[in-house]
Amino acid sequence: MGVVLDRAEVSGAGAAATSSAAPLLSVRDLSVSFNDGDRWIQPLQNVSFDINPGEVVGIVGESGCGKSLTALSILGLLPLRGCKRTGQMMFEGQDLAALDESGMRKVRGRRIGMIFQEPMSALDPVFTVGDQITETVRAHFPVSRQEARERAVEALAAVGIPSPRNCVSMYPMSLSGGMRQRVMIAMALVCEPRLLIADEPTTALDVTIQAQIMDLLIELGTRTGTAILFITHNLGLVAESCARMLTMYAGQVVEDGPVADILLQPGHPYTAGLLGSLPQVRHRKSKLPSIAGRVPSAYEMPPGCRFAPRCSYVQPPCETLQALLARGARHVRCCRQDELTLPGAEA
């Protein structure tokens, strides 16, 4: 099933955010390098984007493109040794890159919440659901254990878990995948953060539960004014839920702009390739289109455009470093963006 777009429907998600408002989060030239013992490699290079208050922004791209690494960098969850992070990350007027570990603990959970990719590994199997949520509450608010437990019950009820008072006494292993995912959302939202980072929140869930989880996130975000950074491989969910999207490739943002504009007429060949690879209703025995090759590892990044070895539109100018250039309401990292008319999603 492909992505079928309606401009009016797509533009509705996150429409409360306005371009005139100051960004809630402004990331500029974020780069991350790791030392493997012999040399430094840079899997994340000069990532820049903004998220406005109440806005829903999606990040898409293949595995290994730097989506989760970007989220971990924002929260300061990178290794303490053998890792260098440069750039600026202004959140509510404060540079997260300048905070030490003590300062970041005050931000994580309280001002920025995160739903991790795999709830079974993110939830501690030896503690009850209630213990794990109340620990989050008591880390940020001077409340009693009983009051924290009541907040945990309220949070579980808010995410649609039946019998929340019973659920607080249960262990993660006794819950279904959808229920564990709801617990992760409750834990991320219990302190009412201003920004929620959702890293593949619907992975391994069936289509019905996926829809329920996404509806829940959007409804909670709308009600509380929480902005959402949604990391996913699913372009259909981005089309239905997000106002803006970022396409990442090989550690760089290659396109950034309104969802409707990008999906209907992408400006970067990689975005067009992702859209072309979506399953469609085709003739029998027709081949599923794909992007030739693979994402380069951090050890073998091309010297110019990082997508050039896989791009069917490559020209000699692509051998040089590509800048993220403005193109109307979006930004595209391609020197041929004004020459190309690329196929988009099904209109």
Structure report:
The chain is an alpha/beta fold and 347 residues long. It is 30% helix and 21% strand. The protein contains twelve helices and twelve strands. It has helices at 7-10, 67-74, 101-107, 119-122, 129-140, 145-158, 164-167, 177-189, 207-224, 235-241, 259-264, 269-276, and strands at residues 25-35, 40-51, 56-60, 83-91, 94-95, 112-115, 195-199, 227-231, 244-249, 252-258, 325-327, 330-332. The strands form two sheets. Strands 6-7-8-3-9-10-12-11 form an eight-stranded mixed sheet, sandwiched between helices. Helix 9 (207-224) links the parallel strand 7 (195-199) and strand 8 (227-231). Helix 8 runs parallel beside helix 9 (207-224).
Question: Order of strands in the sheet with the most strands?
Answer: 6-7-8-3-9-10-12-11
Task: Give the fraction of residues assigned to helices.
Answer: 25-40%
Helix run count: 12
Terminal Cα span: 13 Å
Radius of gyration: 21 Å
- What would you call the shape? globular
Secondary-structure element order, as H and E?
A: HEEEHEEHEHHHHHEHEHEEHHEE
Low-confidence parts: 4-19
Number of strands: 12
Largest sheet: 8 strands, mixed
Average pLDDT score: 88
Oligomer: single chain
Into which percentage range does the β-strand content fall? 15-25%
Query: By helix and strand content, what is the structural category?
Result: alpha/beta
